[in-house]
Amino acid sequence: MELSLLKRTTYIVQNAKKSADFFTQVFGWTIWYDNILKADHRFPPVGRSENSKVRLIIMHVKDAKIGRLGLLEYVEPRLDADINREKSYLKVGDPILVIENEEIDELYQRASDAGARIISPPVDWTVPGPNKESSIQLRTLSFFDPNGIYMEISAHPNRVSHE
Fold first, then answer.
1. Which homologous superfamily is 9-76 in?
2. Which end of the chain, N or C, is less surrounded by CB atoms within 10 Å?
3. Which tens digit of pLDDT belongs to each residue from 4-14?
4. H or E segment to which residue 109 belongs
């Protein structure tokens, strides 16, 4: 059996352009795709008709094949916004956007400036590695973006080390 490739994660957002601007400002990502489309009521199932208009922006990240993030806005009719700007915890089923970037301290400042709700400023910590003899050194920052999307950004100062 051939393994499937996870190529993109798409979030439903209130304003796709504003969301794309956040990812450009904080991470330096660029817009790869930006179009108004007719929604299909099956993809994703949000309880809207076939005639809904959506704006899909796909951000290009570092990897051309798997490094993409979609931002989907229901333009007409609009979806009700249920954004908890004070959100500080996740529930079962909530996604975690995990990003690798070596500029943790700079990202912390840019995310703060762009309106992110910081959960943890940069911290250094160690987790077990993929085998018993290894560990992974991390420097991690976490926050919710203005849409309530939770992100963990990690640098790997020492990659995998063997103890």
1. 2,3-Dihydroxybiphenyl 1,2-Dioxygenase, domain 1 (3.10.180.10)
2. N
3. 777 888 998 99
4. helix 104-113
